[in-house]
Design a protein that fits this description.
- This protein is mostly helical and 129 residues long.
- It is built from four helices and no strands.
- The longest helix has 26 residues.
Length: 129
C-alpha cells in the first residue's frame, strides 16, 4: 500500500539497517587481491574507451556481428525447414533408379471401320409409302 504524504517514506528501522560500515584499518592496509586488480584494470580500460582486445563487449554490437547473427539465424531456419521437408517427403527406394524392362502393352484390337458405299453401284430407289 502506498504511503500517505504525511508519513515518512523510510522508517527508523530501515535507516538503522542501511548503515554503511567502513572497512577496518587492517582491511584497508592489505594489498588488493588479483581479482580486484583485474577488475580495476578492466574498469580503467573501459573508462579510456578501449575494450578488451579492441572489441566491444557489453555495449551495442557492431554492424558486422549483427549481420552475422542475422545470416546465422537465416541459415538455421533454412536447415530446420530442409530437415522437415526431407523427413516428410516420400520414402526413398534402396536403389537410386529402377531397372528398365521390356514394356508389354495389352491393347485391344482396333474397332472395325465403317465402309463407305460403293459409288460404282447403281443407286437404289427408295419405295414410296
Amino acid at each position: 500500500m502506498a504511503a500517505d504524504f504525511d508519513e515518512p517514506v523510510f522508517d527508523e528501522d530501515f535507516v538503522r539497517s542501511a548503515v554503511f560500515t567502513e572497512p577496518s584499518a587492517r582491511e584497508r592496509a592489505r594489498p588488493p587481491s588479483r581479482r580486484e586488480r583485474r577488475r580495476a584494470h578492466r574498469a580503467a580500460r573501459r573508462a579510456r574507451g578501449r575494450g578488451p582486445l579492441l572489441r566491444r563487449r557489453g555495449g551495442d554490437p557492431s554492424h558486422r556481428s549483427a549481420v552475422l547473427q542475422v545470416i546465422g539465424g537465416v541459415l538455421v531456419l533454412f536447415a530446420i525447414s530442409f530437415a522437415l521437408w526431407w523427413w516428410n517427403s516420400a520414402p526413398r527406394d534402396e536403389e537410386p533408379a529402377r531397372p528398365v524392362g521390356p514394356t508389354i502393352t495389352n491393347s485391344p484390337t482396333p474397332a472395325p471401320t465403317p465402309t463407305a458405299p460403293d459409288r460404282s453401284a447403281p443407286p437404289t430407289e427408295i419405295p414410296e409409302v
